[in-house]
Write a structure and sequence with these properties.
Layout lengths: L5 H25 L10 H15 L4 H17 L14 H48 L1 H16 L4 H31 L9 E4 H12 L8 E4 L6 E4 L1 H18 L6 E8 L2 E8 L32 H12 L3 E6 L6 E8 L6
Parallel strand pairs: 2-4
Antiparallel strand pairs: 1-3, 4-5, 5-7, 6-7
Helix pairs in contact: 1-2, 1-3, 2-3, 2-4, 3-4, 4-9, 5-6, 6-9, 7-8, 8-9
């Protein structure tokens, strides 16, 4: 059994006290309906035990709540009132029912949490496998190109123009390898079992502006039209990772959106979250490929000019980062511009665990 942290134990204690206190107050209020014996108290406290077992960790809190509940029913709401009496009919059955309810709900809750943990572990493993496959296929060509160009510069007599071409090729391949390395580092920062994101409230417009500026340093960058709300939005995030998401999504348009001439970036506040969407006027989704929450090959994968393969490593990283922030990423057809629309949202406030 996993030992709960002191913070978690305090939270569970507070929840248990709050729920049981609410059950006592509700039962006292219902006692005005029947001042002889409160027929509602038993049901109220069974519900309270169920809530305690559902929202706390482990079995002890639910079992403890069932014992406290049976005592309260006996002492406060059963004649003679405010007197503990274990001889009244049905008392042993009451204790057994509340204990069984708490144990069953605690067991079901623990199993559900365990299955969710397994799902998260499988998701991490899947992301790692995707990255390894992408790197294994994609990294060979640029490395071979760098080694070939370096050997040519070292061993052959080349004209100045040929030398500059070789150097440009080395620089381009090296930049691409740096981006792959950044993606890998981004994933390893939060995919460990004990990893925690270092979130701070950031001005979203500043993060977007920085990402657009870095994207425009690329030779293949397209013009970006940014639409931001008038009010300043403070979003809890790891600024480096979210900037990496935006850069990867911009690069995805450059790599896959055949025929695209411009990128449209929209930010909108929707209740307690902010939605960010990147749209283009390129080739869009392949015919016969229905929109899904995310699929790496949402756009037609075509050979790149430098003959590299691109396995969608950026989109895989983006989805993982967004989910780690409590959001979700989806892909659809851009209704306004005809190309692809990649949309994701981020909560405007931290979720309490």
């Amino acid at each position: 059994m996993v030992r709960s942290s002191p913070k978690r134990m305090l939270i569970d204690l507070g929840l248990t006290v709050l729920i049981l206190s609410g059950a006592v107050l509700l039962s006292l209020a219902l006692s005005t309906v029947d001042d002889d014996n409160n027929p509602f108290a038993m049901a109220v406290f069974i519900l309270a035990v169920s809530l305690v077992a559902r929202f706390t960790e482990g079995y002890l809190w639910g079992i403890g709540a069932s014992l406290v509940g049976t005592f309260c029913v006996n002492y406060i709401f059963t004649y003679p009132f405010w007197n503990f009496d274990v001889t009244y009919p049905g008392y042993p059955l009451t204790v057994m029912v509340m204990l069984i309810v708490s144990i069953l709900i605690s067991a079901l809750t623990s199993r559900a949490k365990h299955q969710e943990q397994l799902r998260l572990e499988m998701e991490r493993e899947r992301v790692h496998a995707d990255l390894l496959r992408a790197v294994a296929h994609d990294i060979r060509t640029p490395l071979a190109s760098i080694l070939g160009a370096a050997s040519a510069l070292q061993e052959q007599e080349l004209s100045g123009e040929d030398q500059r071409g070789m150097i440009d090729s080395i620089q381009k391949d090296a930049k691409w390898l740096v981006r792959v390395t950044e993606n890998l580092l981004s994933v390893t920062r939060f995919s460990g079992n004990d990893a925690r994101l270092q979130k701070q409230d950031e001005v979203l417009e500043e993060i977007v502006g920085s990402a657009v500026l870095k994207y425009h340093r690329s030779d293949t960058a397209l013009p970006v039209s940014v639409d931001v709300p008038r009010d300043i939005l403070l979003v809890p995030m790891d600024a480096t990772l979210i900037e990496q998401v935006l850069l990867n999504l911009f690069d995805n348009v450059s790599a896959h959106a055949e025929g695209a001439t411009r990128i449209w970036f929209h930010i909108a506040q929707e209740g307690d979250r902010v939605t960010l969407s990147i749209e283009d006027d390129g080739c869009g989704i392949s015919p016969g490929l229905p929109p899904q929450p995310l699929r790496e090959a949402v756009a037609p994968v075509r050979p790149r000019p430098d003959d590299r393969r691109n396995m969608g490593i950026g989109l895989s990283v983006c989805r993982s980062i967004v989910r780690a922030h409590g959001g979700e990423l989806s892909v659809s057809k851009s209704k306004a511009h005809g190309g692809l629309c990649v949309r994701f949202y981020l909560p405007l406030a931290e979720r309490k665990s």
